[in-house]
Amino acid sequence: MVIFSGIQPTGRKHLGNYIGAILQYVEGQDRADPAIYCIVDLHGTTVAYEPAELRERSRDTAALLVAAGLDPERCVLFRQSDVPQHTELTWLLSSVTSVGQLNRMHQFRDKAGTARDRVSAGLLYYPVLMAADVLAYRAHEVPVGEDQREHIELMRDVAEAFNKRFGETLVVPEGNIPTVGARVRDLKEPDKKMSTTGGTPAGTVYVDEEPASIVKKFKRAETDSGREIVRADDKPGISNLIEILAVVRGTAPNAIEHDFEGKGYGDFKTAVGEEVAAWLSPVRERYLELRQDTAAIEEIFEAGAAKATAIAAPVVADVRDAMGVGKPV
Ligand code: AQP
C-alpha cells in the first residue's frame, strides 16, 4: 500500500497543518510501502511569492517534517520540482480534466475572489498538479485535512476518466481525513479554519512558536457566553479546544469533556495552552537544530528525488504509452 501526501512550503507551518496532516504522515511511514511525502514548491508559485524565499521555505518545511518524526530512511521525502514527472503528468492529465470542475473548486474560488483576470492559470491548475503528484506513484491513500476533500474528489475523477478513456493505468486513490482534528479552527475566529493566508495572527499557532507565546494565544482564545466545556455547533471555539486537547492527549474528545466537567473556561484555556506548548516544544527544538544544516537538508532532497523518480518514471511512461504519446514502451 502506497501513501502519498504533499505539503506547501508556505512560511511557518501551523497547528492545523500539524494535526490535520503531519501527524498522519508520521503514523503512515511504517504502515505504507512506501510512504512518500513531498514539499510541493511548484504549488507555491501559484500565488504571489518571493523567489529568493521559496527555496528557504522548502528547506524549513523539510526540517520541520523531520523534526516531527519523519525519517528519510523509512519514507521518501523530496522536493516536487526535483522530479519532472510531476509536471509532465500534469499536462498529460489535462486531457481528461474538465475546466468547469476546476472553476468550481472552493479553494480556487476563495483565493481567486472576483479578480479572475489577474489570477494565475497556475492557481486554476493547482488541483491537476496535485492529482499528478499522487497518481504518479499509484498511491492508494492520501492523508490530508478536511479542506482538501474536494481536491481528492477531483483526483479520483481524473484517474477514473483516464482509465476509462485510455485503459486501466492509474490507481484511484482514497483520502485519509482524520476523525478528530481534520479542521483545526482559528483561535480568534473559530468559524474559520486555522490558515496560512486567511487566518488571524493571534488565532494562528505555529509549530515552531515559543512556548510562552503559544500559552498566551490559547489564554486569549475566543469562546462563547456559556459555561460548559462540551462540543456543540454553537460553541466552535470550545469545541476546537476540546478537539485539540484530545489529539494532544491521544484520547477521545468526550474524555476531555469529562475531565473538565465543572471547570471554568479560563482554567481550560490555560490547560490546553500549556499542554500544546509542552507537546510541540521538542519538535521546535529539533527543528531549530536541523534547520541550521542546509547541506544536510539538500542531501535529503537529493536522495529522496532519486527514490521518487524510480517510482514515478515507469508510471508516467505507462501513461504516455496508453495515450500514444512518444515512442512505445
Ligand atoms: N486548519 C486546518 N486543520 C487541519 N488540517 C489543515 N491543513 C491545513 N489547514 C488545516 C492541512 O495541512 C496540509 C498541508 O496544507 P498546505 O500544504 O495547503 O499548506 P498551507 O497552504 O500552508 O496551509 P493552509 O493553512 O491550508 O493554507 P491556506 O489556508 O492559505 O490555503 C493539508 O493536508 C491540509 O489539508
From TrEMBL:
It catalyses: tRNA(Trp) + L-tryptophan + ATP = L-tryptophyl-tRNA(Trp) + AMP + diphosphate + H(+). L-tryptophan binds at D133. It comes from the Bacteria. GO terms for cellular component: cytosol. One of its GO terms (biological process) is tryptophanyl-tRNA aminoacylation. ATP binds at Q8, P9, T10, G16, N17, G145, E146, D147, V184. Pfam families: tRNA-synt_1b (PF00579). Its EC number is 6.1.1.2. Belongs to the class-I aminoacyl-tRNA synthetase family. This is Tryptophan--tRNA ligase. It comes from Solirubrobacter ginsenosidimutans.
